[in-house]
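worker-03 picked up job from queue 'complexes'. Input manifest follows; three sequence lines, order preserved.
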Amino acid sequence: MSQPFRTEKGGRIDRAAQLTFTFDGEEMQGHTGDTLASALLANGVHLVGRSFKYHRPRGIVSAGSEEPNALVGIYRNGDQTPNMRATQVELYQGLEAISQNRFPSLGFDIGAVNDLLSPLFPAGFYYKTFKWPKSFWDRVYEPVIRSAAGLGKPPKNADTDVYGNLYAHCDVLVAGSGPAGLAAALAAAETGAKVILCDEQAEFGGSLLSEAGASIDGSTPADWIAATVARLSAMDNVTLLPRTTAFGYFAHNFIALAERVTEHEADPDPRLPRERLWQVRAREVVIAAGAIERPMVFPENDRPGIFLADAGRTYLNRYGVKVGHKVLVATACDTAWQAAFDLADQGVEVTAIADMREAPPENLISIARARGIRVEAGCVVTGTLGRKRVRSALLGRLMTSGQVASGGQVDCDAILMSGGWTPTVSLYSQSRGKVVWDAAKGVYVPGTSVQHERSAGAAKGLYGLQATLEDGYAAGEEAARAATGKTAVITRATATGGEAGSGGTLGAIPHDRNASRVKAFVDYQNDVTAKDVQLAVREGMHSIEHIKRYTTTGMATDQGRLSNMNALQIASGALDRPVPDVGLTTFRQPFTPTTFGLFAGVSRGDFFDPVRKTPSHDWAVENGGIFEDVGQWKRTWYFPKDGEDMHAAVARECKTVRDSVGLFDASTLGKIEVVGPDAAEFLERMYTNPWKKLAPGRCRYGLLLNDAGFITDDGVIGRLAEDRFHVTTTTGGAPNVFATMEDYLQTEWPDLDVWITSTSEQYAVAAVQGPKAREVIAPFVDGVDLSADAFSHMSVREATFCGVPCRLFRISFTGELGFEINVPRRHGQMMWETLATEIGKHGGTLYGTEAMHVLRAEKGYIIVGQDTDGTVTPQDAGMTWAIGKKKHDFVGKRGLDRPDLVAENRKQLVGLLTKDPKVQLEEGAQITVSETPATGTPAEGHVTSSYYSPALDRTIALAIVKNGHALEGSTLYVPMPDGSIPVEVTGTVFFDKEGARLNV
Amino acid sequence: MKRYSFLELAKNALSAHKNWGRQWRAPEPKAAYDVVIVGAGGHGLATAYYLAREHGIRNIAVIEKGWLGGGNTGRNTTIVRSNYLWEESAALYNHAISLWQGLSQELNYNVMYSARGVMMLAHTVHDVQVAQRHIHANRLAGVQNEWLTPEQARDYCPPLNISKDIRYPVMGAALQRVGGTARHDAVAWGYARGADALGVDIIQNCAVTGIRRGPDGAVEGVETAKGFIGAKKVGVVAAGHTSTVMEMAGVRMPLESYPLQALVSEPVKPAFPCVVMSNTIHAYISQSDKGELVIGAGTDQFISYSQTGGIHISNHTIDAICELFPHFRRMRMLRNWGGIVDVTPDRSPILSKTPVPGLYVNCGWGTGGFKATPGSGHVFAHTIARDEPHAINAPFTMDRFRTGRLIDEAAAAAVAH
Amino acid sequence: MLLVYCPYCDVERAETEFSCRGEAHIARPADPTQTSDEDWVDYLYMRSNTKGLYAERWRHIHGCGRFFNAVRDTVSDRFLKVYKAGEPKPDLEAIAKEAGK
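worker-03 finished. Artifact:
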């Protein structure tokens, strides 16, 4: 075993389970229970990445999810996932990790030249330069900047992993499982409340996992955790979610959790999702997110080997890893001393404890002395040396004058630093709570609760093991009571040790170096220094948001969790305003970066959006139908026969319909059943047309406007009885028409006695169109006299089709004799197959939506949404005939009287014929008066529909043209890139203008 | 104003950057101004800049409740394009494009306008018709826009999934090559610095609490957190808060303010060369110079001033992004945020005089105001200075909702049949 | 994802079961033919868009299908009152005062 920095014993790793992994191709060993970070450190690897801007060598700083530096790519299945925090990656056999943002190698990175040029690259430098020459920004400067920026390389291949999604409800959600979280979960659970406890780490316990000295109820912290977790997991009302981050706190106590299910395993079970999204509606929330330690902002505080003090302690006590053989502890607070003591107790040489406080607590000093540790009070680190790993530190003595005097140099291979603790208020802030400044502690803590939550323990700035436990119990109890009204006698544990420390500092550490030469980093990942923050203030950036955006401090992947408070203090100093006056940037979700796949969940492929299929779908697939997407529907576009292209297929389908007969699936049309004594009155008010005098058994084309006066939908409406109408709508418009009807009915005319029901899915509809349509359906239809006289155009009957009840319409969207048969959907396939077989016997055809479009265009029937676009009135569309002239009101009537809707020169629907019958216009093409319009010429209108018409053996088009109705017979132009196409304005009906073919 | 240049940067490096001056002052308000602009977002600052620069009005204040550029200017997905359907819109946004092209030089501030191309995907036959209509209309109007086949679209944007087997296959795309992105903060800061140098007072952290009108009904000034500030003319450019501010002058607006979300991924090396938008499946995406994928999500269904939104809204957008770019599925969301967008009934802005003499309003940009920033400020300055609209913004009146002369970009993409 | 109470079903359900239909208490003029263009545009488009308490319409679209009204604080998104369609508009100021207690 070659893990030179591994301790002899201790820690929570499984020393018997040896794992092999690689970092940048180099093979190393670690243990089950290690993170990638702890395993690297055990192997003496400190340099793990390069910084964003200056490409400075960087090492591991923390032991948690706040890690800004140790971001690596993890290879798996031939692809890599970038920017994984080594401190959170659990080690598994065969793990392959690579360093990022370096070229050609981590040790020798060309980008590091930026560090030498850094005087040219202060905060916001890019706003001041790269402006000349003008064309160079996106061609030269930007590509260079872009390739230098970024961290890891994005994945190359489509992700094949799956992601799960769960909704959950609970009484109490506890986020975080340190002492406060465990206590809260236990207290809440003991009342019988339904509890979810989640923690981002693999094990529950939080800070207790690194605690060596304390005892709880006489047990070691580790034993207490084990016993507590065992109790919780034995309770039916508790759900335990390790490796689960509460990342988003939304309105109405809706909390999103990200559970990492298989990422940590060498051979994940392929049946399991990689991650799982939990969307939890919690009655009450306990935020037990703890606190994180602040770095100290001293010059060269970013070298590999410089850690947060508590991280050093965690690596030692939890992972059995020494961060160095010769460690300097630099601190402003008590807790780092404990790290020094733990290290010394494990045989690590602690070269000194440099505490910037004048008089650190006497008891700590004596404990240090007892261990033979040199103690320097009023002493700060003023610089460090060592390129790829720290090798010595410069010390400085704080003078009463505020100046710093040189305090010599100490050799070290690691520095542990602590600027004090920052409560993790992210989730509280996301819940829209306003943090308040605690001047005594120098931290922001949660203020008043806005939602049903409370913070507990270190998350609200409360420290000390016993106090934290008590606060946790109280929070859990209170949350349970608020959620369920229940209480219980809570079993409370008592702790000794783990006392709260005091002290802490914010902002830049004073030093005796040349301030303009040194870099003291505030935001490691984004390479933001104290000088950058000061420069931003000097340039007039006085809002913390401006400072953040100008310097990019707090915008790295840790979202400023390490940097915000120090940046704030530096800004406060530069602005000469107290910290709370400078403000704090808002914490946003997600708490830590969260996989896109998690959000997308199962919404992929066919599940991306539901597919709506008609009863003929499978049959059409088998018979070679080509489909188009119309909203969520799959509709058959055309049915090519052997070797036919689309044009040939559509031409054949159209011709066959006109010559004999065609079968079309019209099931997607919206259908609404309007029933009740006031049904006719209701339709009278909704549609432009009159309905009261429509006789039962008759149909009428209905035109629907909005109250602004513009066409929104249309469809044939049949009256089945005095009090019953069968309304059809466009396919895409169905939900809106139904919602609009409900809206008017429920909120404007609640006095009307009408019920409306969406029946779009209830019926399968087959349209049989063509001269032979009657012959085709006759053998199957009973209960209706199909003769022209008895069942004329625009009629409806209730009948049977093959014995199945049906609604039979005699209507036409082709201009031919036509029937639409509505049968209950479950009989749709039977109907379709019956008719398809029968059609074949008559030399007929199946036709799809494209032929349907051609056939209706030949007749000048509009398609709402294609020939109209939401700005077209019935008059514009040449459909004044559809307006009930005697009606006092209908939806849209008043709108139609508005000034612009009655103005001259409105665009109106016309037909267009190209002078050359072979030339087909492009839909959407513009129309001008001039053959050679100058650029910027306003268009007279545009082509809305354009097809080759087999019936006319020429092209036809519909268009919206300014004043079009008056222009019939005149010539206009359709300007195209290769010249204008002359067109003649015509009426909109191209075929069978008299409509003789309909009435046979 | 000290000019910014590489030389200046190098010079200042020698003095450790200690001699840079303020980009803008932090003045106390004067008793009165010729013009007060309410709202120091990009549009408001640009208005002040052009008023000072092109109309000789120097006695101007821009009053901002929070920090300048902190509203939608600093919260959008930075897309710039002008391939709108209606001539009125195309003219407005194309005017903006022409200003974008020289803006870094004009302001002596690198706003990083990057014409990397905006590609709008078509997934259905109807989408293709709509896209073609746009392209034809744009060609006539002199607005660059062109059709790409799915293969051409993939060549332009290699990560794009053009498989025929996905739920909504890509049937083609409309590409506007002069479209792209710009650096949102820099636009606000560049205009602020430029306006400040021309004497404009930018007063931050000063909420407007009232609009005072004289006996004749005309505007006399604004009540603010720092007292009354007199003004001959007041231009309201308050985005999501426009209804609230206009209410102070007794003017009701045809606006609703919705939360709009956007999000970024963790930064990665260059992975995405352009801007891709899909209206049908609700996604738009680009990559910032820093390396973050910048993704625009949708609005919630209810009005809100909370600057947050529901998770189901961003889920839906990420669904679409992962469908079009399946290898981004393993990327991670770094930060999600919300803005408040003011939406008009026809989804086009209002840049107009109002029934109140001396009161002007610039609002209703909905989800797409950033791209118009220079053009909007330019024509709105003209409107305020001359008390009559510029030819370009003349159609964008409030009165169009009464007359029915809408400029309905949304309806033009209506889906039915 | 808001949690919405339906006063007809007497249940709280996720927002995705509901459709928000804009400001409440905007009645279609009783006789549109007697309504001026100005009043018609008020009905069609003018909305209070209040920052604060707002009475708005919701429909339990994937439930009972019925419309009801709710008073919501558009800053915090909290619902303060839910009532059935047809009931009079509540006194928003009084509700605000009550909530402020």
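worker-03 released lock.
The CA atoms of residues 932 and 978 of chain A lie 11 Å apart.
The domain at 295-419 of chain A is CATH 3.50.50.60 (FAD/NAD(P)-binding domain).
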